[in-house]
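Re: that chain you flagged

S.,

Sorry for the slow reply, it's been a week of failed gels. I finally had a moment to sit down with the sequence you sent. For the record, here it is as I used it:
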Amino acid sequence: MPAQQSIREVKKANPVQPWKTACVTILLCLATAIAAPAQTFTTLASFSQSVSPVAPLTQGIDGNFYGVSLFGGGTQSFCPTGCGAIFKVTPTGTITVLHNFCTHASCLDGWVPASLTQGCDGNFYGVTVYGGANSLAGTCPNGCGTFFKVTLTGTFTTLYSFCSLANCADGYNPLSLMQSLNSGGGSVYGDFYGATTGGGANASGVAFRMTPKGVQTTLFSFDSGKFWSPLRLIQAAGGNFYGAAIFGTNGSDCLADDCGAIFRMTPNGTVTPLRIFDRPTQPIGPLVRGVDGDFYGMTADGGHIKGNCTSGCGTAFKVSAGGTFTSLYAFCSLTNCTDGIFPNGAFILASDGKLYGTTLGNGNDCPVKNSCPGTIFTITSSGAVTTLYNFCAGQPPNVACPDGSGSIGTLFQSTNGKFYGVTENGGSSNDGTIFSLDVGLAPFVTFLNSGGPVGKPVQILGQGFTGTTSVSFNGTPASFTVKSDTYLTTSVPAGATTGHVTVTTPGGTLSSNAEYRVTP
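Prediction finished late last night. Pasting the structure tokens below so you have them in one place:
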């Protein structure tokens, strides 16, 4: 049985690990910002102890949200007040811990979880930065990371320990994971792709493929003489992967390691750099693909140098599949930086086709990034920014904010149309909050696997499914089975073409937030 304690009861955590600091503080520049439309912001819960949730929340087939935290869990000498946890949150803010990492001395289950993604089988998969069965003296003496699976009820399985190969050719310290469209490993579902920050042929990290059963293949070794420390990969319609690297060199302005890169990778591991930034500035968070087919991202520095933004207040950019780069917006373009500073996390593509993101700071004074209030905003493909919410509005600078502040990270959109997120600071105990933001977007349905051939199983998430009368793929009807009010299963019907999936329920017809790609 999973532990039924609240994360709010977990003990105060150890200081943030260096890899987290690098990822949070690392990430070009025209446009205008406009006023926000009406919206409803709700603080759902306040943490009473710091847990530092990482990665965006994700929606389970049961309608609840799931996430991971850096702190909490078992305690060891290297993480004396908690090595991390996996938790569940209801839409109203009730928290349940599903798994506490490192509850035994050997930490075979890993510690410091870095990602959590729902697989097409309904289970969750993720990686931990440390722990596992293998270690490397001087680099990861307490384990080099793991790949794991956890069920909705908390049954946990370690599937792979990194640094299993000689000289850590399979990498160590993984930070990211996503499930692809291709099937492999004897499963009808896709393999997972991810990246590590260390190991490989050049000791600079690798891109890897992992089957749902934990069979690992090293695809590419990054090179510290070019670009390295990749962020999470995303897969485009053609099957190729795209990603951003935190560090890179271009032989001129970036002679050391202070410029990032954008790259493309084939499913077999052929990597092509699309862009090495031409000035000291680094991307933060993974890229996201817009409805126009371009890829969008943010940098935590660059752009305007004002006040506390000694290396720039951050930017938004886009890059085409062919590598054409466009600077979209420079933050702190408005008086008193009311449009925000220091973008954080990654964009998300919402059901209305717009991009949404967060910043670490707003118009209040911000001498320390992680103590700042922040903003929630949306941006168009041409770079017009709309600020939707200012955290800590009306509060004195650097005072605990009842609605949250600090590292806000990447938002998540539930199928009820609302956005959800977590802050690191603020709330009743200044240890962070869970919040929702309703901007009036309608409910929708989504699927766990975004494409496949005729006959492939498809898992659909939503709400109000009891009594559903039809499911169709771009107008082609499909047979289906309602599993619960928030989950149904179907398969790609003969004659289906790429397009939106619709589900007709007693409450009305729901359309998918993205197209389902029917492949050969």
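What I noticed first: Helices lie at 18-25.

Talk soon,
D.
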